[in-house]
Amino acid sequence: ATVSEPAQKCCTENIQPFLASILEELMGPVSSGFTEVRSLFDKEVNEIIQDLQKTNDITKLKENVDQLMNLPFNSVKMEPCYLKVNLLQELLQDLKSRFKVYQIDFVIQRTQNFMQELMENAVYTFEQLFSPSRQADSAKVATTIEKVKLRVLK
């Protein structure tokens, strides 16, 4: 009871007025990281489509889809996504001094984990939607892949 009123007053005066601007500032790098995940997925699926159109090789298509399923765990390809979020390091340093935010690395790591999870969900959904169509002729498969990609991106 003795702490509640001063704590509430402190939050109301020193933290609450800044929350909207802090959130807006932090969302820039987070949004660009998630946009990068989306772009990477789009690019990888487009490469599968182009390869299929060049080769008409269904065996190669299976290999490419299997590689797509491993995309969330491919640190080299995911690195550009993660780098977008590293900008939080600088933004959170300012918050650290103003608001005593100490878990900067944890915030960045959790955000990167969510990005990886989003990619896992995207490739899993792609595989689930595409799997029944895998046996069609190669002309229809390319169209189906495009439709599935657009559905996943939606």
TrEMBL record:
It holds the Pfam family Niban2. Residues 9-154 form the Niban 1/2/3 domain. It comes from the Eukaryota. Belongs to the Niban family. This is NIBAN protein.
